[in-house]
Amino acid sequence: MRVTAAVMEEKSGVFKLDGIELDAPRPDEVLVEVTATGICHTDLHARDGYFAMPYPAVYGHEGAGVVAAVGSAVEHLAVGDHVVISFPWCGECEHCRADRRSYCQRGRELKSLGMRADGSMTMSRSGTPVYGSFFQQSSFATHALTPARDAVKVRRDAPLEFLGPLGCGLQTGAGAVLNVMKPEAGQSFVAFGAGSVGLAGLMAAKLAGCEPIIAVDIRANRLQLARSLGATHTIDNAREGAIAKIWEITRGGAHFTLETSALPAVFRQAVDCLATRGTCVLVGSARRGAEVSFEMSTLQAGRMVRGVIQGDSRPEQFIPHLVDLFVAGQFPIDRLVTFYDFASINQAAADAVNGTTIKPVLRMPH
Ligand SMILES: [Zn+2]
Ligand SMILES: [Zn+2]
User: Fold this and answer.
1) Which residues of the chain are modeled with pLDDT < 70?
2) Which ligand gives the minimal distance to the CA of 103?
3) 139 and 29 part of one domain
4) Which of 48, 63, 202, 325 is the most exposed place for a label (fewest CB within 10 A)?
5) How many A from CA of 169 to the centre of ligand 1?
6) Which domain does 28 fall in, by range?
7) pTM, rounded to two decimals
8) What are the pLDDT digits (tens) for 265-279?
């Protein structure tokens, strides 16, 4: 079928809306009419050539929408279902079989090679292939073709236009806290980076009863938002000595820190401010080759550094749970979202980079 997609023609170019031919669903796939899709930094990393994905390409991996067609073997979804599309996984490797699918051995290629798991392609233009299947969804388009198992059914009374980022960035932050740290009430929590991932973690820490909750960033607007979402303290990392201040607020170091910045110097701060037996969870995606150093004695004192992908989430359980919390007013993701028309995708991408918006979400014209 003919759909409209935001096509990237060359490395670090501009997005151009264009007509694309999209395959019909195979037996195990669903076609989703995209209602809205978040922009995540990974989309922009792909645009800038961090992955092997060639051009022309269509990105987008935080899609939410309505099922428009299902493949013949799909049983758990029907036309009209509301879905959030989450990350891809192979289902066969050691980690998928252990139900730790965000660590899928084929995860990177399924996200960023621009084709299905079997190497076939889903998009073309005037008979020439276009690299789609980004995160097996390429939701910067009016319609997305995705493996049925990556589409998570959500309740119909939740406003669908807010839900796409739960499929990546927001479950990453919330899952790092609720699935990995599992803090007890009264334990201290620090978010390094008050973007969408850090703020989702902060909201989860508030739900868990953490105290104090500290947000560290260099942008005043983000720190202010963090305070209104539950931070008891904020630190401007450009002006204040974060480690000394965290040490003072927590009286001896933080129980849990969440590193979202992907900057080596900030990652080190997130480890150096830990209490004895404290845990730092790393979720920020650094470029290959980025290195960081610690003092070995710091880690030896029972401190832990744990890398986490997608918040250790089992999306079909965790995303509906987060939607319930959102509807109940306890996980106010609407406070993070700024909507843009699909045609304004280049403005939305620029605002994501310069930090004026926390989570840009593109609304599709239907
Ligand atoms: Zn993402
Ligand atoms: Zn796998």
Assistant:
1) none
2) 2
3) yes
4) 48
5) 5
6) 2-167+336-363
7) 0.96
8) 999 999 999 999 999
